[in-house]
Structure formats: C-alpha cells, structure tokens
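Meet my pick.
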Amino acid sequence: MKVAFCGNDNTSAYDISAGVLKNVCFVDALNLVPHVFLLFITFPILFIGWGSQSSKVQIHHNTWLHFPGHNLRWILTFTLLFVHVCEIAEGIVSDTQMKSRHLHLFLPAIMGFVAATTAIVYYHNIETSNFPKLLLALFLYWIMAFVTKTIKLVRYCEDGVSFSQLRFCITGIMVILYGLLMAVEINVVRVRRYVFFMNPQKVKPPEDLQDLGVRFLQPFVNLLSKATYWWMNTLIISAHKKPIDLKAIGKLPIAMRALTNYVCLKEAYEEQKKKVANQPNKIPSIWLAMYRAFGRPILLSSTFRYLADLLGFAGPLCISGIVQGFQNTSQNDTNTIKKDPSDSYLSSQDFLRNVYVLAVLLFLALILQRTFLQASYYVTIETGINLRGALLAMIYNKILRLSTSNLSMGEMTLGQINNLVAIETNQLMWFLFLCPNLWAMPVQIIMGVILLYNLLGESALVGAAVILLLAPIQYFIATKLAEAQKSTLDYSTERLKKTNEILKGIKLLKLYAWEHIFCASVEETRTKELISLKTFALYTSLSIFMNAAIPIAAVLATFVTYEYSNDMTLQPAQAFASLSLFHILVTPLFLLSTVVRFAVKAIVSVQKLNEFLISDEIGDDSWRNGESSVTYESCKKHTGLHTKAINRKQPLRHQLDSYEQLSRRQPHPLEIDDVAIKVTNGYFSWGSSIATLSNINIRIPTGQMTMIVGQVGCGKSSLLLAILGEMQTLEGKVHWNNRNRYSVAYAAQKPWLLNATVEENIIFGSPFNKQRYKAVTDACSLQPDIDLLPFGDQTEIGERGINLSGGQRQRICVARALYQNTNIVFLDDPFSALDIHLSDHLMQEGILKFLQEDKRTLILVTHKLQYLPHADWIIAMKDGYVLREGTLKDIQTKDIELYEHWKTLMNRQDQELEKDMETDQTTLERKTLRRAMYPRESKAQLEDEDEEEEEEEDDDDNMSTVMRLRTKMPWKTCWRYLTSGGFFLLFLMIFSKLLKHSVIVAIDYWLARWTSMDNENKTSYHVAVFSILCGAGIVLCLITSLTVEWMGLTAAKNVHHNLLNKIILGPIRFFDTTPLGLILNRFSADTNIIDQHIPPTVESLTRSTLLCLSAIGMISYATPWFLVALVPLGVAFYFIQKYFRVASKDLQELDDSTQLPLLCHFSETAEGLTTIRAFRQEARFKQRMLELTDTNNIAYLFLSAANRWLEVRTDYLGACIVLTAAVTSITHGSDSGLLGLGLLYALTITNYLNWVVRNLADLEVQMGAVKKVNSFLNMESENYEGNMDPSQVPEDWPQEGEIKIENLCVRYENNLKPVLKHVKAYIKPGQKVGICGRTGSGKSSLSLAFFRMVDIFDGKIVIDGIDICKLPLHTLRSRLSIILQDPILFSGSIRFNLDPECKCTDDRLWEALEIAQLKNMVKSLPGGLDAVVTEGGENFSVGQRQLFCLARAFVRKSSILIMDEATASIDMATENILQKVVMTAFVDRTVVTIAHRVSQILDADIVLVLSEGFLVECDSASNLLLKEDGLFTTLVKTNK
C-alpha cells in the first residue's frame, strides 16, 4: 500500500478550487507548521544552552523561581498531552477503517504531542536557570497553534460536523487549551516585565532555597517532580554509597517548622478562647482550632482522594468493555466495512468500543489514579507532621508555665505529661493521616454498589449485604485486638521489671546459686505474657482471615444467586468486572474499623489535651515577663563577657571581676537601700487556700550570706520557692531590688541534671570561660570525679544523671549555680548528699571564697549548724513561719534558748563528724563510678558483633563491600528465625500458603471457564464445583492465617527462652563488660519486635509475593507473549526495591534515633521546671525543643516521602503490566474468559507490588532484632558440670571450713593477663582471716576464685579435702556464703529475700534476723516476714539492707563466710553490729574478710597482704606490724 499524506483513495484530496482553507487535508497540513516551528527553535537552545548547565541545576537550587502561573501551566500542558493522545488514537482508529493510509488524520497529532512535550521541557529549563526572555519562543508557538486550530474548528463548523463527532470535540478542546496557555504566557510578561517593558522585575528565590541546608525540596520543585518524587532520586541512590545521616537530610523548610505551625495553631486557639471567654462553662475547642490552622491541606487531600477513588472505578468498567469488545470482535471478525474518505468521522461510542483504546485509557486512568492517591497520602502526612509539631510546641510552652503546685500536688503527673507528648500527639497525627478516608469511604461504597447493581441486578445486593453484615465483626475483632495488646503490655512490663532485677543482682544470684529460682519466676511471667500474646495472635489471624475470606464469600453468594434467579447466563465481562468491583469494595470496609477506632482515640486525646491546656499556670509577676530594658542589658552583659574572654593578655579572673564590677556597680540614685529581696506580710500556699507559709516578713541583705535553718519540713525550701514566685501568693508582696532581678542561680534540693555533657550541665547556656569554669569545678571538688569519666567533662551523663551518685549529681548542680554570672544565688541544702570533707571544702572554697569575693548575694538553706558562724544574716524557721531573723550575735543576745538548742545540736553533729572522718564516702562514690565506667572497653566489641558475621574476614573498607552489605537481605537470620519455630510449623505454613493461593487461582480460573461456555453446556455442575472451591478457599484462608501466627508465637517463645537461659548462665565477665541497658534492650525492644511485629510482616510479605507471582503466572498462561514484556519490567522492579530498601532502613533508624532525645527533653523539662524558671532559661529550652522537634519531623517527612517515591514507581510499573497484559491478550488471546481473568490479575498486581517491597524493607529492619538476640546466643556459658557427680559430695560439706590455696593463678578470661599469680596459703578451720592490699591488688579476685567466678587456669583451692574445680558449680556455690559490698535486695517479701528456696523454718529466719539485730524492726512492719520489699530494697536504709544481707548469709548454715568489703557502704553503728555478729554468731566458722580499711582486720587471726596479684605477706596482724618497712605497716599508717 502506497503512503500518501491525504490518502490514495481520495480524488478530491488535492483539489483547492473552492479555496485553500476549504480543503480539509490542507488545513491538517497547516496544523503541522507551529509544531515544526517550535521544534526547530527550541532544540538548538536546549542542546547548546543547557547541555552544559544541566549538571549545575541539581546543585544550585537558589535560582529555582516559579514563574507566575507555574502550576496552571503544568496542569494545562498535561491536559493538552492527554487530548493529543486521544487525537492520535482517534486518527489511527479512523485510519484503520479506510481503504488506504491517511497520514493527515494522525501525523499532525503526533507532532503536536512531541511539541507539547518539548514545550514543557523547554519551560522547565528556562525556569530553573531564571532566563525568562527565552519564553518568547513559547509565546509565539501558542499564538500560532491557537490560530491554526481555530481555522480547523471554523472549517468543521462550516462543513456541518456536529458535537456527536469526536474529532470536532477534540478540536474544540484544543482551541480552549491553546487559548488558556497563551493567556498564561501573557500573564508572565505582565508580571515579570521581561519584554516590552523598560524595567524588568527583579525577583529573589524563596528564602528556603537560598539556605543550602534545606534539602527537602518537595514544596519547591515543579509539578511533575512533585507527583513522582523525582527530586528524591539523588538521596535514595546516594544511600547506597554512604548511609543517610542528619546532615544529608538537612533542615526543614520554614513553612513546615514547628514554630511556624505553632504560631498558626496558637492564633486559631486564642480565637476560640475569645469566643468562649464570656461563657464560663464552655472550653475552647481544639478541633475548631485545628481545622482553622490545618483545614485547607486536609480539604486538598480529600479532593485528591475523591479523584483517585472515582478513577479507581475505571478499572472494572474498562475490563467489562474490553472483554465485551473482544467477544464481539471475535464473533464479527469477518464483516468489517471500509469507510469512504469523505465520511472519516468517528462517534465517541464507536471510539470507546475499540478494545485497544480502552486498554490505553485503562493505563492512563491507573497512572492518574495512583498519582492522585499518593498525592493525597503525602498531603495528609505532611499536615499530620505539621500538626504534631505545633501541638508539641503548645504542650511545651504550657509545661514551662505550669504552676508548681499542679505538679507537686499530683494533678498533673510527669507520666501524664509524657503520655501527652508520646501518645496523644501521635494519636492525633495518625487520625489526620486516616482522616480523608472518613468521607471518601461512603462515596466509594455507594458508587461500588451502584455499579454492581448495574452489572448484575438484584443479586449484586446479596454480595454487598454479605460484606456489610461482616463489617461489624471486623470492628469487634479490632477492639479485641487493642485489649489483647494492652494486657500483653502489662505482662511484658512485669517481666522486664523482673529481668532488670536479675541483671542488677546477677553477681549475688550466681554466688548464691539462685539463678534458676529467679529464672523460673521470669519464665512464669513470660508464660502469662504468651497466653495473652496467643489471644492477640488469634485475633490478628482472624482479622487477616476476614480480609481474605469476605470477598470470596461475597462473590460466591452473588454469582450463585445470579445463576439461579436470572434467565440470562453469566457473561465473562460481567463476572470479571464485578469481581474487580468486589475487590474495590472490600478495602474501605476494612479500613473503616481502623478509622473508627482511631477517631475514638483522637476524641479522647483531644479531651486530655484540653484538660492540660486549661490547667493552672504560674502567677505572672512583672519581672516574669522581664522588662525589655533588663533583658536587653543582660544580653549586652553576656555578649560582653564573651568578647572579653577572647583577650588573653590579662589573667581571665581579673578581667571577669573588673567586668562584673563595671556591670554591677552602676550607682542607682533611687536605691540606697542594701536589701536585695524583701518579703512583707507574705502568705503563700501550694495551690490550696491554706497557707503553707504564713506571716513572712524578711529581708535579705545585698552581697551577703543569709542562712535559713530549721527542722525538716518547716518550710525552708518553700520559702525559697515563694521568693522565686513558684508558690501561690495569698497576700503580701515580694519586692526585688530592681537591678537584681534578671535571673537567679538556683540549686534545688533534689539534684536535676540534663541529658548532656558535664560541661554543658555546669555552664548551662552561659558563655564558656575556662578560668571561671576551673575555679568552680575545684570549689566543688569535681575534678577527681571528672577525671574518672571516660571522656572527662565531655562525658554524656545519662538519663537524669543515672550513672552518677547522689553526691556527684548534687555537686554538679551547685557548680552550675556558682558558675552563672548572677547577683543572687539560692542554694537549697547543698550539703545533704555530701560527706564532711566535701561539705567543708565547698563551704570554704565555693561559698566563702568564690561567692563572697564576688560580693554575690547568697541564700543558703542548710541543716549543718556548724556553718552558722559564717553567716552574715540568719533566718530561723519553724512550722511555716519565721521564728527569728538577724545575725548570730542578735540571736545569741535575744533568744538564748534557741542559741543553746543550736549549740547542743552542733555538739552532736561534731561527734558524728568524728565518726564520719573514718568513713570516706567520696572515695567510695568514686570507686563505684570507676566500677561503673571502666568495664566498658568491650562494649564496642559487642556492638560490632551485631554487624554481619562475614565482615570479619575481609576488613577492607572499599565501597563495593560496604554497598554489598548494605543491600544484602539478612537471609541467614531469616532462616534462623523461621526454623526456631520448628520445621513442622514452617512446612505447614509454606504448604498451606501455596495451597490457599492455588485454590484462589482455581476459583477464578473456574469462573473464567464457566462464563466462557456456550449457554447449552452450562450446568449446575459448574455452580457446585465453584461453591466447593470457594468453601475450600475460605477454610484455607483461616488455616494459613492461624499457622503463620502460631509459627511466630512458637519462634518468639523459643527465642526468649534460649536468650534468658543463655544470659543467666553467662560468665560474670560478660556482665562486667556489657552495659546493662544493652542486655535489657534485647529483652524489651527486640523481644517485642519478635513477639508482635515479625509475624504480621511475614504474613503480609508472603501473601503479597504469592499474589503477585500467581497473577504473573495466570497472565502468562493466558498469553505467553506477556513474558517477553515482563523482563524489562522485572529489571526495573529489582533496582527500585534494591535502592529503596537501603534508604528506607537508614531513614527509619534516623526517625527512631531522633525521637528519643525529644521525649527525654520533655520529661527533663517537666522535672527541672523550678530550676529552668529561676535561671530564666525558658527561651533557650524552647529553642532546643523546636530544634529537636524539627529534627524528628524532617526524618519522618523524608521517610514518608521515600515511601511515596517507592509507591509511585511500583504503581507505574503495575500500570505498565496492565497495559502489556491487555495489549498482548487482545492481540494473541483466544478466550474472552481468560482475557478477563488476566486483566483482573494485572489490576491486583498494582495493589500488591509496593507491599512486597515495603514488607521486605520492614522485615530487614525487624530481622536486626533477631540478629542482635542471636549475637548473645553465641556466647559461651559457664561450665556448670563438674567432674564429680553431685551425689558424691557429702551432704554437710564443707563441715570443717579448712582452706588450702595451692599455687593459685587466676584470670578473668583466657585472653587477659592473670590477676592472681602463684598464691599459696593455708587457713585452719574456724580462723578469722583478713585480706588487704591497695586498689587493684587482686583482693576481690581472690574472693571470686572461691566461687569459680573467674578462670582458675593453674593451681587449685582445696576446701575440706575436695578440689573445688571438680565440683559442679551449683553444688559449690550453694555450700558457701558471701556478703558483698553493695547490699542487694529483691522486690518481694522479707522471707523471699532471706530464703528464696523456701527451705528454712520461720524460727530459723527469726533467729537470723535477731542476730542481725533486725528482729524488732521487722516485727513492727505489717506482715512481719511477709512484709513487702520494694525494688532494690529502697524502703530500707543502706545500713538495714546490709544487715539483711548478713542475716541472709547466716540463714545458709555454711562453715565458710566471705565478706567482700561488706562494711564499705555503711555507717559506723551498723559496722559495729556487723563486727560483733561476726565475732559471736560466726565464732566456729571460717570467716574471710576483704577489707578496704585495714583497721577492720587488726584483730584477725591471720592477715594476707596482696600486691599486684602476688601474696607478699602472710602472718598475724601483730607480727606483721613489727616489720617496719612491711606493706601492711605502710597500709595501717596511711589509713589511720
């Protein structure tokens, strides 16, 4: 066939006798001109001008300027492209009905399509390089195209072509579009004035883009990049080369920052407040405020959602059309009539009957639907994140203004505040995510039912009824799930508490051989937790089952009803379209239960928020707001300090002093008064009308030290807080001398530390000044403690300073108060947790020297009366009123009685001092600190084990290996996890899954067979088989969902059991070198993931993978040609998932790691409110909170953008699969039933492809938990089996208590140096032995060697004739007794603490308590022996706890007792009791005492002196003291 532009069969084609424009073919040719013109002009500019620039566009986004009408232009261009596609299709379809090729029908349209694409690419390049003059080319193009199209339209009108003809409609739409684009172009000229005007307008890009730190570009890129997340490509691909960190994701754009959104929400909330101001009972509505602030994006998102849902119905309609068309064409293949060229017009109906047109339309509808859906998701998520940021800022601002009484009287507990932050804000955010579903679902359901009714008539209603009736069951299951989860949480909290206790007291448990008792107790709680997990798993599997079974049931009911109630038989077109509709219908019904549940939760959350936001605030004194002048002064003061500090020529201290003198001593003409603070007639209360402090009239002199003294609970601390404005003033006034009230340095009674470095805690936001910092740390004697910390003062002190002792924390808080450059310092009982040396040092260096030299006003609350002589002014308090006020002299003369009372108290304190002098608490604290800090060397080593095992062999850090490791799925770990549930269950799961999917495919295949048959052959036999298959499918759905959950449960049970046993039996060295938190994490977070998160992920992953595979198999079966097209799609899919998984893992980790600091910051602030407010640091803390919130939000935003990136790509791939499936089936297919089936399956793929990748990524992250647990399971246990059988050991061994130590060598691990070398000693039965030596000489190691807690690699210890290395560990440890330095009690009863094995009678226990002098105390407790001991024995003093440990050792009637520095942490009185008991009750037993004070062992029968692991001296104490130069003599002398 020859090709001609106007066709060969048309004689009048080139006839222009009636005029050129009357010739249709010429008008079509004319339409080519503008397109060719544009291509000729733009291509050279694009290739030459921007070839060099394209690389720069990525880097400098500061030229990204949207021209006016940017979005409108993109939308119009896309519409234009769509119309061009229709025009091309219409031309081609018309052409197929001609006798010869008519190029003029579709060639201009193809050129138009190319030109429109070029136009938008060209525009994008001009816009990114901000060069508007080149837009003139486009301007000309739009005018020319508009003119030529108008000519064509006029031509049709004259020819009398009507609206019913598609070509006429297309041309009309084109004219409108070109006209609108022309208008957009004119508008750009009008606004930017780049041509025809004298002065073009200068425009700056948005502020965000000028800041190169902003990497989140979604708001700034063009429409196409917004819709496809194209701008994310660089980030996601770069994740392969190096992990994504906070620097890579940059800052949040201004519009999304918490501050911006807070201002929005705050304004809306204030508006609501004003509305209800006159109605006392009404509270302002947060709902309305949220709608005001964030309503618009929600409406936009809902619009996108509606569009997506409506486009979703294109799928079933197109399937119906294609199958129907295919049936018709295969029937009437023979009789197609060729048209005459003059009648080349198509009507819309004819056009839509063409199956290929429908296939392309289906493809476009899918692409659009998915784009809108993802856009809707993105907008709601962004809004949800913005809302959360705003709410967090609102809550935080409220916390800073909460009245202290509210917190102390328990109206608002810290727990409630933490819940608001962690739970309620997230509930609202999630509600917002699901919000559009609320109003989109009803529309979707109604539309679906209407379409079904159209297809199938009444029988459709039966199916819809089945779905609707089963929806409430779904809701019921969802509520049950929530309940089960709650009870699981309670049990797991209890289990964690028990595990925590075991880990804290592991040394004691091992030494007493009690690990199995405690292990059993954890296992018992775990069993309860597993029962609750079982119900959770059951409901989860029921929910999954309902999801899968409802559509099958609905389809079965519908088709069977249809078959028996209608005369007509079921057609493939109807069957597959209605199947597809059922799939669409089921989704909203399942989501409905979730959405309703979240809506209910959101309502509750808003109520809680409301209560919080209207709770009491602290009173606003004038200085609370800080007069602007004062604040300004202070800013100057601080900056001055900073700049001055850089001048190194003078000594800094001197500079600082002169500077402060300058800033402070400006004489104020009005204030000659030297009173810093004055309280007149003050009555103050804690939130009630009853005054806690009454009739307070005091003055505090400037620049002097005022002491406030009185008994416990007389209101000393309250007085400080009243002055600070933290209490409610009932009457009276607090006057501040103006120049003093900027801020006050305040150290609270209960030390409060930040989660930050030591240095940050001390300088607390002030400029750093080295000299001053050193002076302060010396005054508080912090330097020795700082030297002990692993990173000095740059060490992070953990959650609320947990890794420091009370005294250390208190000294840091005092240092913070001293360091601040303020006129007034409040110290609330700073000596309470300090021993006498430190108190004196602090008094002398810190208070008398440092503060007094600076002439700062100091108010000191204290119980230490010996410091009274130092005070310039004394305030004595009693029961909430001031007893006396004045100098010590005044009081001595005016109130002799009080003075005498103080004197007796001082004498008593002095006696205590002498006692105290012996026990040096500080050295002890430092020892504990050293112990806590230094066994951390191998922490790093443990973390490394979490990495891939294979890494160890080749440690080359080249890119390829790193990349390989980051992209590799941890298949090994997955296999270990799956098999830990048992092979039988694994086999059952795989088998039932495969069977279920085969049955589901069989159901659809049978439907295809049954509907494609001729009417005569259809029988009830088909219906019967169909019903049986459906029944089998439903049963299998239940079985598979149950097996997966069952397998997950068994795996969880086994993994936890193995982990617990492995850890409990681990060597003590493991606990010394592994931080407790790390081990606890395995039992908390990781176990929770294994329990609750992995099973549903595995289920979802296997289901979506099998669905996709069965779909691909089915389509390939229907048309084998499809496999050819599948190869490129498969490759694309592989790369998408590979890149996404790596990026997603990084972003998820970032999101998790940025969440914790935020929550910590909130709880920290709530705890340290008074301190923050006294220091006037609210602004700094707000700033920090906003930064933390933004950091967490940007991580979450990027994570959700990455998810959208993935979904858009997998959805487009799915659409391509649908298109290829449709085209190949139409071209090569034979059977209309199979064609429908193939299309139905292709549609399901689009839904499940992204789930495959998302689940893979989730599983990869979750398998990390399994991997961490496995790394502990590879640890070596202690060797519990001995060479002897336990039955060979005599019942009463060791009876005598004779100990022979022969050539003993001991080390902690076989790769470490020995800590004891060749020690030889002989201890007779019943001897009292003392062991001493300097720190690190091996004293404690020797005591551990008796229990084989360390590795005895040479020599032996023989007790009563038996070598302890041959004994089973349990036997050995259960026959010896030990009292440790740290007294450890477990939560439970006193009886349980003394005798967990329940072997002893009550008399025996009472006897032990009597010996330990605890009998009377225990008798007075409710319950006696069954009295409660709280966690860690916190309800007893340290001394009492140590005595309990003594009683515990006595209960075990062992002939050998070892005391490891047992008196180190107790007071003198308790120590005396201990010594007495040892001498009397243990008179016939062998007692080995390891002493940290030599004075304890002077009356021992024999003393062993160790030095660096060698035994250097061994004799009685009296003999050893005769050696003048002996080590023992030296130790005794230095210690005295």
About this structure: The chain is about 65% helix and 10% strand. The first helix runs from residue 24 to 30.
